[in-house]
Description:
- The chain is of the alpha+beta class.
- Helix content is 52%, strand content 15%.
- The strands form 2 sheets. It has a 5-stranded antiparallel beta sheet, with no helix packed on it. A 5-stranded mixed beta sheet has the order 4-3-5-6-8, with helices on one face.
- The longest helix is centred in the C-terminal third of the chain and has 121 residues, at 146-266.
Amino acid sequence: MTDRLLVQEGARKWEVVLADAAVVVGRADSANVKATYASASQLHCRIEQVGGSWTVIDLGSTNGTFVNDGPRLTGRVTLRHGDRVRCGPAGGLELLVELAVRRTLPLVLPPEMLRKPPAPVPPAPKPPEPKPPEPKPPEPPPAPDPGELGQVRAKLAQALGELDEQHRLVDRARGELDAEREQLREAQATLEDLRQELLAMRELWQEAEARLVEADKVAAPLRGRSGELEAKAAAMRPRIEQLEAELREAEAARQAAEQRAELLRQAQTQQADECEELRRVVTGQLARIAALELELAQARHAAQR
């Protein structure tokens, strides 16, 4: 059996084989184990080998990473067979660790055994004083223990991994900070444009107010003149109506005179004297009509003023 992860997110279950490369868990497209729940961050945690052991480290997630329902991870934790890694709150993404070689914890003695004082030993008889030994040449330094050297290398690799992770976090934070600075610059430019538009609108508003004041000044005397003209027109309206009535009467009389003149023309051979009289009547009526039309025109002209 190879090292693997049994992943479960709600009703979804699948398997991820653990090889030499690290496994990144999160909602980002670049993640090896892609989560869909919003409780998981874009880059939530990473599982990788350090010193021959699989470890898990949180990548600055929002809701945290937990192993076997323990406290929230603040550093790197070594994984064992059967461990459960949970991303975010309960019910979210969980990973069950299955290792081909099941590693056990080293033997740890209870505190009572470590703190138990040694039994008293009776004093031994004092031996005779030996002769001072001859000086020996200095012994070479002891060779380093391979086990301790491996632990040091593992710790060094772990520290380097944590340092790389810190560098990646710093780079990501710098990128986010640069993006926020760019957004801030764009917002400041937009704000400056809005300020310029506001100043232009204020100038237009002040110019419109000045023109409105000038228009009021010009319109004030016109309003008084309009009132006077309306009063004159109201006073002259009865006279105009009277003249129009007289004009209608004169027009009716003219039409009647023309009709009568036509009859008289037909009989002018017999009634020459009467026709001449009628011509004088018609001429007088026409003069009256002209006078009335002239007076009507003058009245209309006065009303239009």
